[in-house]
Amino acid sequence: MPRSRNLVASRRRRRKILNKAKGYWGRRKNVYTVAKNAVEKGLQYQYRDRKVRKRMFRRLWITRINAAARLNGTTYAKLIHGMKENNMEINRKMLADIAVRDPETFAAIVKEAVN
Prior knowledge:
- The chain is an all-alpha fold.
- The chain has helices spanning 7-20, 32-71, 76-85, 92-101, 103-114.
- It has 5 helices and no strands.
- It is rod-shaped and about 85 Å long.
């Protein structure tokens, strides 16, 4: 019985890894074993940083809301507490956008929430 090597599939598998390693520096882009490690590590970073991006944006929104709230004489914590008590359901992303683009509307929201 002849030996089966599955050459087409193995070449395609290696080519897929090397294509993902395009743009890497040195042997990481053209030596399969080195490229495989670099691509695997890159995919780990990619998976991790999709989660980190969400955290970073939430921190940015909170910082923007806090800065705008302080311009209106209150703090972030007091603003969010007042909004919850008055059943004002605006998420932090929208609230931060309002704070940056439309300060008058944000001032009205603060007035409604805190008073």
